[in-house]
Amino acid sequence: MTRLDAPPIPAAETATHGLGRDTELLSAALNDVLEEQAGRVFASRLQWLFRTAEVVRGGDAAAAARLVAYLEGVPDDSVEPIIRACSLELQLANIAEERERVRRRRQYDATGAIQRESLAETARILRSNEADIPALVAQLQIEHVLTAHPTEATRRSVLDHQWDVAALLDKLDDPRTGVSSRRRLLDQLRETLTIWWQTDEVRRVRPRVEDEVRRNLFFIEAVLFDAVPAALEEMERALDTRLVQPVLSYGSWTGGDMDGHPEVGADTLAGALALHRASALRLLRERVDRLARAFSHSSLRIPLSEELAASLENDERELPSAEVLRRAHREWEPLRTKLGFIRHRLVNTGRPRGREPGYADAQQLRRDLEMVLAHLGSRHVALGSIRRLLWQVDVFGFHLAGIDIRQGATVVRQAASSLLPGFADADEPRRMALLTEALASGRRGIEHDPGGEAGELLRVLDTVALAGEAYGPQAVPAMVISMTEQPSDVLAACWLAARAGATSLRMVPLFETRGDLDAAPGTMGVLYDNEAYRNHLRAHANRQTVMVGYSDSGKDSGYVASQYSLYVAQERLSAQAGDAGVVLELFHGRGGSPSRGGGRTYRAILAQPEGSVQGRIRITEQGETVSARYSDPELAVRSLEQTVSAVLLATALPNPPIRPEWRAEMDRLSERSRERYRGLVYDDPDFERFFAQIAPIAELSELNIGSRPPSRNRRRGVEALRAIPWVFAWTQNRLLLPSWYGAGAALDDGDLDCQREMWRDWPFFRGLIGTLEMALFKTDLGVAERYLRLVDDDLVERFWPGMREEYDLVVERVLAITGQSGLLDETPALQRRLEHRNPWVDPLSHLQVELLGRLRAGRDDARTPLLATITGIAAGMRNTG
Questions:
Q1: 479 and 541: one domain?
Q2: Which residue segment(s) compose the domain that 35 sits in?
Q3: Residue 205 confidence class, pLDDT cut points 50, 70, 90
Q4: Average pLDDT for the chain
Q5: Are residues 780 and 632 in the same domain?
Q6: Residue 450: is it exposed, middle or buried by C-beta count within 10 angstroms (0-12/13-18/19+)?
Q7: What does the pLDDT read at residue 199?
Q8: DSSP states of 79-134 as a string?
Q9: What CATH number has the domain bearing residue 521?
Q10: Does the residue 293 lie in any domain?
Q11: At 711, is the secondary structure helix, strand, or coil?
C-alpha cells in the first residue's frame, strides 16, 4: 500500500485548552478501539483521512484531489467501516464541545464572574434599570414543548453511550483523579467506545410513535426533572425574590400530533398519557423515598401537631396494606412515617389496591408534603430537598408534560361537514353562524362516524374528554389547528371539542404560510367578536395562545421574508389582543436550522416585537435541539437560565422605536428576497428535478429516523414535502440553500448605510443577520459542488452559477453590514467549534456523493452505507432540520 503523506496530528501536550485535550483524548481512545476491531492499517488510514481533510480545508488543491480519488476508490467492504468511524468521531467531537461548555460554566462559578446571558447578569441589568423584579417574576409563564419531528437521527442506544462517555470525561477532568483512577477510567472509556462501535447506528426499523414518546420522556426523567428545580433555585438566589408559582412548564406533541401522521390517533394518545402518568408517579415515588430515608426527625426534637397526628391515624385506617408503616413507631419518627404513607398513596395512584385510596390529583400530594414542610422547624431544611420536590410537583404533577393534540384545518372542516348539516356547502359567514348557534344551543349534529382522519379526530377528542376525568385537564391542555386559514377553522374545532365534552382544551390556531400570517389578525379579530368564542376564552381566563410556524413560512417564502412576516404578524396580533382585552401567549414553532427559526433562543426572544412577550412564551424544542440543550444537567440549567433571562429582559426593557426608513427597507428586503426565492424554488419547472438530483431527498424517506411520513400527502414534489426533510436534505449536501437564498440580491439592492444602522440599533435585524451569518459559515460550496456530478449537465448550467453568485453576494453584504473581514470573526469560540468537526464531516460528504451515484446507478449494496452517511453528516452538522 502506498504511503499517504500528511501533516502530523498535534501531540496531547500541545493542547492548550479543555476542548483540545478532550478531543485528542477521545480520538486516541477510539484509535485504540479501531486498531483492535478493524486493524492497525484501517486505523492509520482513518487518521490520514482526517489530516488530509484538514489540509484541504487550508486550500490545498492537490490534497483535495488525493482525498477524493481515495474515497472514490474505497473497496466496498471498507466503505461502511470508514463511515461509521467518521460518524463516531463527529459524535465524540460534539461531546467534547458540550464538556467544554460545562467547564466554562464551572469556571465562571468558581471565580464568581458573571456569565453572559445568566440570571446574575439579568438581575444586574434589571436593577440598574430600576425594574420591579417581583412583579416581573410573578407574571412569568414559560413553556417548552418537546416534539417528535425527525431531525434527530440518533438512536436511544447511542444516546446511552454518549451519556456514559460524557460522564467519564467529567471524571477524567476532575483534578482530584489520580493516576490509578485515571487508568481505570480510560479502560472504561475504551470499553464504552468498543460497545458503541459494535452498535448499529442506523435504525433497521422505523420508530413507532411510542418510541418517540419514550425518547422525550428519557430527557425529562434523566435531566429536566431535577434541572428545573435547580434553575428555579438559581432564579430565587440571583433575583433575590421568592417564587409564588413555578413559572416553568413542559408540553409534548408526541402521541397527539395527528397532522399528516396516519399512525397517531386515539390509541397513541391514550398510550402516551399512560406512559407520562407512570413516569411521573415513579419519579415522585423515588424522590419521596429519598426524603423518607433522610428525614429521620425525632418527635423529641420536633413537635407532633394534632393535624399531623390525625393525618397519620387517617392513613392507618385508609391504607391497611401498609403493614410496615402501621407497625412503625410513628410517635418516634412521625415525618418519616408520613412520607412512607405518601409513597404508599402514590403507588395506589398508579396501581389501585382494592378500595385503598391514592391521590386524586397532584394538589392532594402537595397538601400532604406541605404538612411535612410545616413540621420541619428549620429554614435550612425547608428550603432544601423538600422544596425542590414541591417544585417538581408543581411543574410536572402527575402528567409530567401536557400533550397537545394537533390536526390540520382541512380535517377539522371534514369532521364538521360530516356532522353539522349545511356546513359543507356554506360560505364563511354562514359557517360561523351555524357553529355559533350549535355552540350556544349545545347541538351535537348528526351522530355517525365519518371514517378516515375525520373519524379518528372525533375518537381523539373523546379520549381527551376521558383523559380530563382520569388525569386532569392539564394532561391534554390544547388543540393546535395547523394551516388555519379562516375563523371557522378554529370555531369548528371548538365545537367538535365541546361536542365530545373536551371543554378543557384551549384552541390554538397555527398560522404558517405568509398568506396565513398576513391574514392572522383578521382571523383572530372575527373570533374575538364572536360571542360563542368569547365564552370559550372566558372559560380559560381570557387567555389565547396563537402559534406562529417558522417551518412552512420559511419553506414558502425563504428565510428573510419568513422572519419578517412572523415579526409583523406578532406585532399586529399583540396589539389586537390588547385592544380586545385578551391575554395573548405566542407559541413559537421553531426548529433547529436557521431557515426554521433556529439559532440562539436568547437572542431570538430579545428580538421579538415590542409588547409581544409580556412574561409569557411557548416554544417548541425539536429534534437534535432537545439533545443539545438537555444532554447534561448543567447545560440544561444554563439553557433554562438563558430563556428565563431573555423573557424577563424582553418584558421589562423596551426595544428602541423602529424608524420608518427601517420598516420601509425591511418591507423591500422581504418582498425582493421572497420574489427571488420563489422564482427559483416554485416558479422554475426544472428546479424540482435539480433538487431531486443534487440532494438525497428520495433516500431520506428510507432512513428510519422518525415515524412521520416526509410528505403531508401522497403527492410528490416540493409543494407537498414537509419543511423538515426539505431542510434536512439541503443540510446533507452542505448547501443550506433555504437558509440564505434570496437574501443576497435583496440586501445588495438596498441602502448599505441604512442596513448598518438597522444592524446596530434594531435587535430584530441584528438577530436576522446573525443567524444568516451562521448559516453562511456552515455552508460549504466546495463540498456542495461535488454533488453536481449527480446532476444532469443542463441543470448544472442553469442553476449552479446563479446559486454561487447569490451566495457570494450575501456573504459580501453581510460582512459589509457587520464590518468584519470574515464570517463569525466576532465570535471566535463559535468559529472554532464549527470548524473543528469539518475534517470528519468532509470525508462523509465525499463518500455520500459516491454512494448516491452507485445507488442511482442500480447498485443496491450502496443503500445501507449511504444511510449511514446521512446519520453521520446529521451528527456533524447538528442543526439539520
A1: yes
A2: 1-113+156-199+871-881
A3: low
A4: 89
A5: no
A6: middle
A7: 87
A8: HHHHHHHHHHHHHHHHHHHHHHHHHHHHHHHHHTPPPTTSHHHHHHHHHHTT--HH
A9: 3.20.20
A10: no
A11: strand
